[in-house]
Design goal:
Elements (H helix, E strand, L loop, with lengths): L5 H6 L3 E6 L2 E6 L9 H14 L6 H15 L10 H13 L18 H7 L4
Antiparallel strand pairs: 1-2
Length: 124
């Protein structure tokens, strides 16, 4: 499956060498992904390619893969962040169009009224 999309993956910043049907060497990944588990990500991409309908245009498949890749570079639930990191993330979100949802359309934050928060903590 990876071999079929090797050129498109290369355009996205992946340099992949196919050794056999079950063995690939990943020489480069997009810098934006940082330090990630490359094996897990590639397995995930291959799985997504298998799931995606064959009737979809190649560009739509690539966009779905990019959404998956973006998730690999995201901040995951439960990760402890320093105050400076949290502040920087919020400043970046303020500058980023459509930052209120992830690439899959799920919300990245919710707005709550102070009165709702007070109710949660039984203050009112």
């Amino acid at each position: 499956m990876i071999e079929i999309y090797k050129d498109k993956l290369f355009e996205m910043g992946f340099d992949i060498e196919i050794k056999s049907e079950n063995k690939v060497i990943v020489k480069e990944i997009p810098a934006i992904l940082g330090a990630i588990d490359v094996k897990e990500m590639l397995i995930n991409i291959a799985g997504r390619l298998t799931e995606i309908e064959d009737t979809l245009p190649v560009e739509d498949k690539v966009n779905k893969i990019l959404a998956t890749i973006a998730c690999h570079g995201s901040i995951r639930a439960g990760r402890k962040m320093r105050l400076e990191e949290m502040d920087e993330l919020l400043r970046q979100m303020e500058k980023t169009p459509y930052s209120g949802q992830c690439n899959h359309g799920r919300p990245t934050y919710i707005e709550m009224k102070l009165s709702d928060i007070e109710k949660l903590f039984e203050r009112r």
